[in-house]
Amino acid sequence: MIGDRIKELRARNGLTQADLSRRLQISRSAVNAWEMGISVPSTQYVVELASLFRVTTDFLLDRTSEETLDISELNEGEKELLTRMLQYFSAHRYTVGLLERHGIKPEEEELEGLHAPLLSYYKGLKDLEKKGE
Fold it and tell me: Would you tell me how many other CB atoms lie within 10 Å of the CB of residue 8?
């Protein structure tokens, strides 16, 4: 339901209903009505909300659970890092799922340990950036 999605995205972005209404130049009661399922936003506001929250209109309309990420302002090195991070998290989820299918439930500390190489790599990149300044 679009109202639930608006409420979720608003909260995720740290906005109150009043904040969102000011950004869209509408009343707070209109935002409340959307979130309560009393009314739905017009096409104009669906597009504005999608832009504001940086999601697709399909995601906002709850037609898909896929989210997008705008990487157009990243340089090639940052895009490569992001790609590697996504591959890492995908492999991590696969590994945890495989362990759980075999009856092994990793402890939280063990899962945190799996992230150590990624955190180390990220710290190394930050150190290199500082040296280059």
Answer: 12
